[in-house]
Amino acid sequence: MTVTITPAAPQDVAQLRQLYFDVYGHGYPVALGSDPEEMRRLIDDPHTHWLTARHEGAGHLAGSVAVQTDPGSRIGKLVGLAVHPEQRGGGLAGRLTASVCADAFATGTPDSIYATARVVTPGPQQVLARNGFQALGLMPNAVEVAGCESLALFARHADGVLARRESVGVVPGALVPLLEAARRSTGVAYGRPRATDAPARPAGRTAPVTAPMELITAPGFVRRRFLELFPDPGERFFPLHVPNAVLTPPDGAFEAYADLDQAAASCSLIAVHPSPAAVTGALEPLMAAVTRAGADYVETLLPLADTAGLDAFLAAGFIPSAVYPAMRRIGDRFHDYVVLSRTSRQIDFRTAAVSGRLQPYLQAYLTAWTSTYLPLPEVTP
């Protein structure tokens, strides 16, 4: 039978929900495949390209995929790639991915499109690689789907973007293995940045915070407060994430804005006021508060050039997990960003299908994790 790929329409919502149930059961943690109201909103959203695949005469959809684009940051995210169990093995996932990326890039809006792939099977990684996506890193325990799972980060850039990257001269020493892994996996050069292990002195705080962190989960208030503190879009760079919670110590020394996803048991720290370095000495109680709220995985996104911010999170046990080249456009130049993550669950890679493109990142992660949590004992001569 012929497979037809067409844009999703509001009347497809019921069959789309059935498709995601057939593929994932009740464990799909994304509103795109489970919340009818959100699905209709995205179908009507001019910045979302959502495609469906249908066999003529079949009573169900054969596949689905979408690219959500943030026009402000000029970044897209490939989400919801699903192929019905009866249609697997025929290359439909690759066709859907190629079609939706072509549609998104044809608008001229995204400079890059990223995707996360489950590593319980090599299939999703292969589909992305065959469609021009490069592996950028590995995030252990990043999501709750059918149990706690790790994700791989991939991205594909528009023509000419990678040639306009700003170089970085100094990085924390803990990032060097990750940058070397990226060079080996993608061929993208990061120059020869000078490594430094001397953290910048944070402004203000001189002693670790021990008091419990206050967590406010009032989405409307949080968004209004967030926009008041960060009126400049350039100061709130975390594409396709909107804060729904804020964490602050009792003395109000800083406010950390987060996208807390209890269904996926994950949390993204989007921005810190007055600066990322302000959380130095306070990340332990912050992690405890997030864990109590149901998130076992926390990640943040920082510029590769932000040595002080990177040092603050590295000192609190965050691990360099991925590096996204040319992620942010400023003027006519592009800047690299780093994903740092921390998990409160035991990490188990025994069943992970880590492809050759991800192997360097696995080794880099293990090196960083070991040096952070299993330091070698000093030997006295």
Task: Give a description of the structure.
With 381 residues, the chain is an alpha+beta fold. Helix content is 26%, strand content 31%. The protein is built from 9 helices and 16 strands. β6 and β7 (147-157) form a beta hairpin. The N and C termini lie far apart (75 Å). Residues 200-206 have low confidence and may be disordered.
Set out the fold topology.
Elements: E1 3-7, H1 13-24, H2 36-44, E2 48-55, E3 61-70, E4 75-83, H3 92-106, E5 112-118, H4 123-130, E6 134-145, E7 147-157, E8 170-172, H5 176-186, E9 194-196, E10 214-216, H6 219-229, E11 245-248, E12 255-261, E13 266-273, H7 283-292, E14 297-303, H8 307-315, E15 319-330, E16 333-343, H9 359-373
Helix pairs in contact: 5-9
What are the defining features of this structure?
single chain; 381 residues; alpha+beta; seven-stranded mixed beta sheet; 9 helices; globular
As laid out across the biggest beta sheet, the strand order is 1-2-3-4-5-7-6
C-alpha end-to-end distance: 75 Å
> Helix and strand string, N-terminal first?
EHHEEEHEHEEEHEEHEEEHEHEEH
Structural class: alpha+beta
Range of strand content: 25-35%
Which regions contain 5 or more consecutive residues with pLDDT less than 50? 200-206
* Number of strand segments: 16
Question: What is the rounded Rg?
Answer: 21 Å
What percent of the residues sit in helical stretches (DSSP H or I)?
25-40%
Mean pLDDT: 91
Number of helices, where a helix is a run of at least 4 consecutive DSSP H or I residues:
9
What best-fitting shape do the alpha-carbon axes yield?
Answer: globular
Biggest sheet features: 7 strands, mixed
